[in-house]
Amino acid sequence: MPAPTYPLCLGIDTTAKWCSAALVDDAKILGFRSQKIGRGHAERLADMVQEVLRDACVKPSAIDKISVCVGPGSFTGLRVGLSFAKGFALPHNIPIVGLSALEVWAAMADPEQNKTLCSAADVKRGQILSQVFKNGQALHAAKLSNVDELSGLPKKVVGGGAQLLGADVGTEYICPATVAWLGMQAVPATHPAEPLYHRPPDAKLPGGKTL
Asked: Is the domain defined by 9-100+173-185 classed in CATH 3.30.420.40?
């Protein structure tokens, strides 16, 4: 099988219970792995990416871009994905972009980009991180709200917090192929590979200092 000649993007997600990786070009999925593991992303991710590249007959140096989901999600999980992506990219000088889970859920639910919907993440403590998208474009930045404060949302709500807002179905699953395809169109200036935290960390340095 000859190696693909189209631009290649590696998509990674470790923000929740799944550990996922996919390699895509601009037309199709070349390699795909996704496993619901709960914990242990750091132990599984490197092997998973190696399997994806082997299936696609692609060397790491042939990858044009890496796209990683940056949260919100598990503090440890999202940092595993980011750390791996940066370590993988450095020796090959591969650019990295970060996609929020809200963007990915919206794209998964509206692949034709012709709907208005709300993408929502359950960030616990009775709070939701939400963002409204219309025809594939965000109408505002992600905002943190109490569940009972949200009103006037589109009828269609997607993402891990969807059921808290009255939707019949909600899922935390992030498709790594969607992460990769969105990443193809993103640039580091607008989509930096930095963790998206829904609130400041509870842990403080001695004396109440912050980093």
From this structure: yes
Structural tokens at position 185: 């169109």
Residue 117: name the closest of 128, 103, 99 by CA: 103
Enter the tokens of residue 173. 């699953």
Orientation angle between helical segments 176-185 and 101-109, nearest 10 degrees? 100
Query: CATH class for domain 102-165?
Result: alpha beta
Q: What pLDDT, on the 0 to 100 scale, is given for residue 170?
A: 78
- CA-based R_g, the chain, Å: 17
Non-local (6+) Cβ contacts of 139 within 8 A are: 131, 132, 133
Residue 44: in which H helix or E strand, if any? helix 41-56
Q: Which residues of the chain are in CATH 3.30.420.40 domains?
A: 9-100+173-185
Torsion of CA 180, 183, 188, 194, to 10 degrees: -50
What is the rounded distance in angstroms from the CA atom of residue 161 to the CA atom of residue 34? 21
The whole-angstrom distance between residue 25's C-alpha and the CA centroid of its chain comes to 18
Polymer length in residues for the chain: 211
Question: What's the pLDDT tens digit per position in 154-186?
Answer: 889 999 999 888 887 778 999 999 999 999 999
